[in-house]
Structures are given as structure tokens and as C-alpha cells.
Amino acid sequence: MQIPAYHADTYEEQAHTQVIALGERDGAPWVAVEHCLFHPQGGGQPADRGWVDGHEITPVRDHDSALVVAVASGEATLPVFSLGQPVEVRIDLPRRLAHAALHTAGHLIEAAGRAQGWLLAANNHFPGQARIEFTAPQSDARLVTPQGREEATEAIRAEAAKAIAQDLPVTWDNDTEGRRIVHLADLHSAPCGGTHVRSLGDLTDVVLATLKVKKGRIRVSYSAAHRERS
Questions:
Q1: How confident is the model at residue 229, as a pLDDT?
Q2: Closest CA relative to residue 185, chosen from 210, 213, 164
Q3: 71 to each of 19, 81, 89, how far by Cα in Å?
Q4: What is the pTM of this model?
Q5: Which residues contact 94 (CB under 8 A, 6 or more apart)?
Q6: Residues 6+ apart with CB under 8 A from 160
Q7: List of domains in the chain
Q8: Does the structure show a pLDDT above 80 at 105?
């Protein structure tokens, strides 16, 4: 049984574990470990960068086994592993924290947009592409003019800044259907399989460009970073 350790602790950088499964994906070998630190791409978040016994890997979700498996990155190859073999696993922690900050900031912007009466339509938490898209159930007169769009954006900025200043905790639990639900205190809750910061005070440099409206979608592009750890 694989333990999704990336859910339990965003900040766990390395661990000793063992091989629990082996297989192939598109003709290339993969290895699955019990204590899995590696977050695969999904839910608008890019994959972690990681290593198994010093060999750089990319984690992917294997649809047949439902395991997160490690495949060799780039032109590299994996050595021959055996079931039960002890291995050391590690992630690129700065990259992980960058992803977690963007993903958490995305939830915060979603909460601020919902406070405006908008509904979530799409999200992307990739560096350099991060955005949250909404639809408005009724016409929002503010979005017709540049000044109105800037005023709406400023309202979202203010809501986000207030929550960050309050350093609201970020937690998760499973609902009755087994889905993982991420909570920003009482401000927002949503099903999510991504990685997140410990509290909103870990976010810094949260910048929102003036929102755009196109084909009925309200797009809020943003950037964010993880505050340096003391």
C-alpha cells in the first residue's frame, strides 16, 4: 500500500522507504515506493522533481495500478530495482514550495472571487501561467469598463491581503466520500489533491494583474511565492 506523503506534509524533503511495485510505461521502466514524497502533475499543479537513490525522476500517476510511479527524467535511465529494496527518496524542496504557494494562492483568489458572487470555471497553478477563471451568474456592471475591472481586481487584492495578514491556517481532511478537502480556515473549502503551505502567512509577493473578461469568463492572472523559512 502506497502512502501519499506529499499530502501529509508539504515540507518533507527526504525519507527512507522501500520499493513496492515495478512496471513499464511507454516502454520505459518505472518504480513505485511505499512512502511517496512525489506529487504527480494534476489538478492544475505541475509535477515535483525528485530522486530515487540519487537517480532523477518524474512522478506520474499510473492509471492501471493507481500508484504514483517514478520514471527517469529526460535522457536518464533507471537502474534495476527489486521489490522490497530499501531506497532513499528526495524532492526538490524549493520547487515544491513554489508550487504549494501558487496552488494555495489560487484557492485564496477563488475565495475572494466567490465573495464577489462569481463561480469558479477553471484554474491553472503553473509558474508563469497561474490564473483563476470565473463566471458571473448575473451581469456584473463593473466588468464593462477598465476602471470597473480595476476596482473589482482591487477588491480581490484587498480580500487576499487581509487573509494573508491574518495568517489563516491551511488544513485538510477527508469527507464522507473519501475526498480530500482543503480548508483556508473558515474562509474557503474545496476538494483538492495539491500541495499547500501551512498557513496563509507563508505566502509572499502575491500579485494580481487587472482582471480580463473574454467570452463570458473572468480571468484573474496572478503570481505568488513562498516566504523564506527562518
A1: 66
A2: 164
A3: 13, 12, 13
A4: 0.94
A5: none
A6: 105, 108, 109, 112, 206, 208
A7: 3-91 (2.40.30.130), 96-226 (3.30.980.10)
A8: yes
